[in-house]
Every structure is written in C-alpha cells, then in structure tokens.
Design a protein that fits this description.
heterodimer; A: 334 residues; alpha/beta; Rossmann fold; 5-stranded mixed sheet; 12 helices; 35% helix; 17% strand; B: 423 residues; two-stranded antiparallel sheet; 7 strands; EC 1.2.4.4 (chain A)
Chain lengths: 334, 423
Amino acid sequence: MNMIQAINSALEVMMARDPDVIVMGEDVGYFGGVFRATAGLQKKFGKTRVFDTPITETGIVGVAIGMGAYGLRPVPEIQFADYIYPALDQLVSEAARLRYRSNGDFTAPITVRSPFGGGIFGGQTHSQSPEGIFTHVSGIKTVIPSTPYDAKGLLIAAIEDNDPVLFFEPKRIYNGPFDGHWDRPAKSWAGHPAATVPTGYYRVPLGKAAVARAGEALTILAYGTMVHVCQSVVEEAGIDAEILDLRTLVPLDIEAIEASVKKTGRCMIVHEATRTSGFGAELSALVQERCFYHLEAPIERVTGFDTPYPHSLEWAYFPGPVRIGEALKKVMRT
Amino acid sequence: MRPNLPPLALHVPEPRFRPGDPVDFAEVVIPPADAARRPDTSAQPAEFHELAYTLVRVLDEDNQAVGAWNPRLAPEVLRRMLRSMARTRAFDERMFRAQRQGKTSFYMKCTGEEAVAVAATLALDRDDMCFPSYRQQGILLTRDYPLVEMMNQIYSNRGDPLHGKQLPIMYSSKDTGFFSISGNLTTQYPQAVGWAMASAAKGDTRIAAAWCGEGSTAEGDFHSACTFAAVYRAPVIFNVVNNQWAISSFSGFAGAEATTFAARAIGYGIAGLRVDGNDALAVYAATRWAAERARTNQGPTLIEHFTYRAEGHSTSDDPSQYRSAEEATAWPLGDPIARLKAHLVAIGEWDDERHAAMDREVAEEVRAAQKEAEKNGVLGHGLHQPLDSLFDGVFEEMPWHLREQQAQMLAEEAASGRPWARK
C-alpha cells in the first residue's frame, strides 16, 4: 500500500470495528477526499458516518468536539494543514482543555487528520508545517507518520486514543518515499519494506519513536518526509548516522532520544517547519539538558527558513540534500 | 480624493443613553401580547419574516396569558417556574456578596434574565443537552443540581467537582445535561450542533440547546454553527440572549441597529423567533415549539430573547461608567419574576403572603447551602486540592514530561521550607 491506501485502510478498519467512528470534512464524502484518503468509505458505511461538510474549519472541529461529547469518536479532516488556523480556537481553547477544565466530566476523543508539509510546489498555503503551534498546547497529542505501515498503525492508535490527536500526514510522501532529490524521477512505495501493510487491525503505539537507521556516528532526529531525505543524505555521505523517526511529537519518546544521543555524542535535528520557535528548538533544548556531558559538538538544527513558504524558490527553501549534507559535515567536523 | 464628491463618513454606533442621561425607551416597539401568530412546527424558515422582527409575548398588561402562544400551563408548573427564578436570584445575591466578602475571586449574576434559562429548561426534557454560556445558571437551578455543589465550584474548595481547575461559575455537569462552560465565547455553538448531529445520526430522541449573548453572535463560530445546523437540519435550539449589553458595548456593536438577531436565522434557512425574554410564558412556549420542531426532524430554531442585563457584567464591572443608571428600572418589559408573580396573582393562584414566604424559603435554602459549602473551605484559605492534582486530566494518562514537572513542583515545595498546607 502507499500511504494514502494505508490511511484509507485504517479508517475502514476502525469504522468497521467501532460504530461510533465517523469521518467528516470538506470533500471527504461522495468524492472520497482531494487526496483520495476517504475513497469508498461513504459507499461502504453510509452518509451518516462519512459526510461532506461546509467549508468552515472552526465548524468542522467544533462539531467534532460536540460529537465527541455525545460519545462518538469523530475523525474530522482539515483539507490542508495550512487551513487549520480558523479552527485554532476550537483546538486550543476547547479540545485540548475539555478534559482538564471539566475534571474528566467531558472529553474530546477526536482525531484531526490533515495533510501537511512541502515539496510539492504548493506555495504559501499548501506547504506549511504548523506542528510547532500545536506541540506548544498542553492537552493535544501530535502524530506524524513517515511510512504506510506506521501511518495505518498510528492512525488506528490515534482514533482509539481518548485524547484529541492531531494527525499530520506528509503529503509529499503519500505516493512514494521522497529522498529530497526533486530533480530525479519520483519513487513509488512499491518494494519499500514499510509499504507492506496488513489489511486488518494493528496498532503502532503513540509516544514511541522508531529507529529508521541504526548507526554510531551521530543521531538525527526527524519526522515525516525528512526521515527519508535524511536517510538518502546519510547513505550518500557514507556516514554511520542513527536516524530516529520520532513519529509522535507529543508525547515524545524521550528515552529513545536520550539513549541514542548518549551513544553517538552528536545530534542533528531536521524539520521542514520554520526555524524560530519550531519543534526543533524544543528537541535541541531537551538534548542539551539531558545529554550535555555526552555531547561532542553543538546540536545542529536543519529547518525551513523563517519565511513564508515560497513557490518558485521551493528547492532553495526546502531542507534538502545540500543543506542537510552541509550540516552533517559541520556536526562531524567538530 | 475627488473634490466633486462629498466626503464619506464612518458610522460608529452610540447607545442612546450614557451615565446621567434621562432614559426614555419609547423607541422600543412592544407589540400587544396576542399579536404574534404561532406557525406550525413544520413551517419553512422563509415563513418567519414577521416573527423575526416582532416579539412573541403571552402575558398582557392585565397580567393575563393570552394569544396563540399561551402554553396553558397548570398553576403548579407556573409556581415551579416562579420558584426556580426566585432561587436563581437569591443564589446570585448571595454569591455576589460572597465575592465582595473575599470568599471567591469572581461572580456573574443573571438578574433580569432568569426566565431565559429557567423557563427554557422547563420546556426541554431532562436528558436534552444544554450548551450554556456563563449566564444560564438557571439551568442548573431548574434541574435541581445541588446548590452546595455550585458553591463548592465557586469557592474552588475541597468539594469542588472541578477540583479547583476552573474559574468560578464555569460549571460542568454531564449528568445534569449541562456542558462544561468555556471562557471562550460562542465555541459551544458548533459543539451543540455536533452533539445534536450525533444524536440524530444515532437515531436518538434527545436534542441540544445552546445559549450565547447578542454580543457573541459576532463571533465566527456563530456563523459556522448556523451553517452546520441548517445544512444537516440538526435538532438544536439556538438561544441568543439579547440583554442589550456586551460588557460596556451596547447591542449596536453586534449589529442591532440594522436588524434583529432573530432575523439572522432566516438567511441561514433556520426558523427564527423573537421573544419577550422577560415573559417566562413566552420563553417557555417558544422553547417548547422549537423543541417539538427539533424532535420531529424539522430542523433547528434560533430564538432571540429580548431582555435587559439589569446589573453589571460581572463582579469586575461597574456599569455606571458607561450606561445610565435609570435603564434597568425604565426597561419597558419589566422584571420576569414580578411579571410571572403578577400573573399567578391575577389568576388567583398566588398572593403576596405566599410570595414573601417563598422568598424567605429560598433565601434560607441558599443560606444553608452556603454554610454547608463553606465547611469545605473558601478560596484563598489554604490549599483545598492535593498539590500534585494540578497535573491530573491534561491527558487521560500522564506522560513523562508532566510526571517530571509534577515531581519538580513537589520538590520545590519540600525545598521551600514553607510547605502548602495539605488537606
């Protein structure tokens, strides 16, 4: 399966298992979603469980919260993460706090799916990576898969989770594991070991990182598309890096990070999102606090620049092989 | 700028009366009590034009219940309605004073608006879910939620069902059908629609009701909620409590100079009623009608309750700084409790002695509840919840970073040499 099919399969499995799981969002019903993630679900489960919504993100999330309060387990979709901002109040002020402010009287067991990230010539409003806005909010979990296998298992775990989960899907790798070489032909998931996805139910636990590549020379902390870009850069540079695919940003797998950095003594953090106050800053602070005496070089952050996401200059903006390669040399030189 | 055209002018609304001004509400049009027609609950939204611009009223100048909207309630129901409103007012008086005495940080009264919550609640079923704003304490009082529990929440004390996590009056009681109140305005509107949609999707028979003030209708969530409710014909009742004031801003800043709030419904394809919010029977009748419409899959209703916020916005507000003190007494729709009392007296089911006795009883009930609640402590007098409970309920299970911060806090307490008193 590619990542779209894996996500579709997770939704289908959960809708079949739990009559309280419902799917809603712009164009998700009859049409099956602009990325086809919900294709066939309305036909199989009916219009009262899979339906199109008006174009109002705050309405989509607000309604999902109300459905969650009733006892359903809604999986709303925000068509692009760039359009999640109208729902910010409902996510930050409501979903994230409902359990806390009502002392458990009401909860928001919702999973907000949203395609995110760049590398597709999406320009300013089809490329953003807003995860850092949400990792700053207490009460929300943030999950980002990088393979079809993880996408399905993590989405199932997110839907079963009783807390609100933001599930950001790196749309650049929906159809293949993008390695950052935009000038080479695109790869598909065919033949990739993580593209073998069981058709039935399984979970990948939230809060657990995965070792995308074991190594001794340095630790690279990445998630989403950047896992694949880093893998390719590391192989090309011939450096024995350990790449941790974080998979869940909140709650973070701090044990895996600590163990890896203490082993390698060097750490590089890679994300597409803009640099200042991005999630990389949190990762860098945590590594510095917990692994200071094991560090042999300053922690390096490779990120998008602090600009809106550009259109024509995409490959100058995107943290691709050149920028990551330079940072890699810098970390290893010290 | 083109010299041959007159300059444009920006209109900034201004209320008719400011502090010190004499008040004359002659421009507020009050139609006769029997004027409004009562359509069938299956009527199309487009048929509500005149109902969205008039006032549904039942109690006339002679304190009789008249017209098509007369709900013909039995005297014991009327007395129960009256008592719930009186309890609400007595509760407000007592808690306002408790705030002034420093026993809690904050309070908000609903004086003059008691009918909006009490009569509506009596017209709903006990298991219908209410999504209130912060000024519908009458819902809890009508559904006989314990006064002591409300006060425990206000005092953030040992008995506080919300364990001191919420600002006073931001109650939550799932069992009472009272959704957790948020400080963020109108967020509960789309949530109520979602709850109602879920009920419909599950083939349930319960409906949802939401409340917001007229000021809050300016929020984007109001628009989202109305759109969703109309699109899916959600079994929901939207209540807009038009009490003329949003803190210091008069209703003109929410658009009232140009239209009514009930009229907004029509553009969405929602039935819209404008009701005398100080006429408990009109509020009851309109809610009953809207509930019937929702329960028979005819869709949502928006009810504008035309009323007046008789007191300050909150204990942190001084209305004498922005409006005439005469307004509350000059308000042409009077006081909801006085009007229902007069009706009961007029039909021979009540008298001044019984009313005075009821007032004494509810005052005593509230006083006794306060005494009971204060046994659990009041705000600021020591710590009422275990210190480490601060981290409970952020997530269902506490992740490592919260466990670490919790341990840090306990270590700080131990190191301070001044441990918080633990109860």
